[in-house]
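Quick one: structure for this chain?
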Amino acid sequence: MLNIDIKKTFPLGKTIQFKAEWPADGSWTTLFGPSGAGKSTVLRCLAGLERPDSGSIFFKDESWNDRKLFVSPQDRNIGFFFQDYALFPHLSVVQNISYGVSDLPASEIKKRVAEMIQTFGLAGLENRNVKTLSGGEKQKTALARTLCRRPRLLLLDEPFSALDAPTRLKYRRELRKIMAPFQIPIVLVTHSRAEALTLSDRVIVLAEGTVLQVGPIEEVFSRPASQRVAEIVGMENIFQGRVIEQNEGLVSIETCRGKLTALSQGVEVGPALVGIRAEDISVSRQFPGETSARNHMEGKLISILQEDCMVRVTVDCGFTLDALITKKSAEEMDLKIETMVYLSVKTPAIHLFPQSAH
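Got it. Here's what it folds into:
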């Protein structure tokens, strides 16, 4: 297991109080939250680059930090992948990769570097100066150097932030596949929902230096534990409702524009907050009739924004709801501001928070 229970206070009063535990296996764990949440500080404390004011860090059966003990970064055998790659600009690809293992016998260095060149698809670039590489090639070189040391734990701090959007998408897809054979625990820091969903097995949601929720990535993103977690993980639509009835695994929710039906989620009868993801809302110009969605609302289109290949529409249904649809769908429906539309939502897509869960 990897167990972290630390506290660190900064000069201006900001405090990080992080407590979480998860398996130290070959899985991906993401520290997820807004800027300033304390993600990178936790990562640096885990790496031994910063020392907590109090608390403990255990990796498997080893103590790395407690009241009397502090294990140095080099003795933890951790691979730390920095945002800016930290490559040596005057050295070649091979020289950069081999830099971290220069204390090993020459034959072992040659063997490990060759493995990294093959693993990361860098053949043909061995003698190129890293200044001449593309962003993706630099990223691969930096990660190859990090893994050449064969670390027991890999820490990734915003690893895709220096890449342009198309390259970021490409290497995000490749990275998990590349890392699978290494079977080491990986801790990723990101504020990108797409990165977290693509790469993570589990997620730890932080805000203001505190852990808010820990769990499997799909569970946390689809069933956030509170309104604050829902906002952080990108549940765009949160509005006031009231649970008025529970029956056979379903609940009826009263809103200012009629009733909604959701799956029972242990929320008592009474005031509640309702959460729906934008991508879980279907949009149509005509009343949809017989569909698998039990919830339908009519409203007026008040905003249309293009987001990459998708279109975000905002509809006034007495409260505002955002929906994400394809550009093709928007064009086929000839959507315009003040167009009247119908929104449809399936019962499992509606999430409820107790009124007190903030």
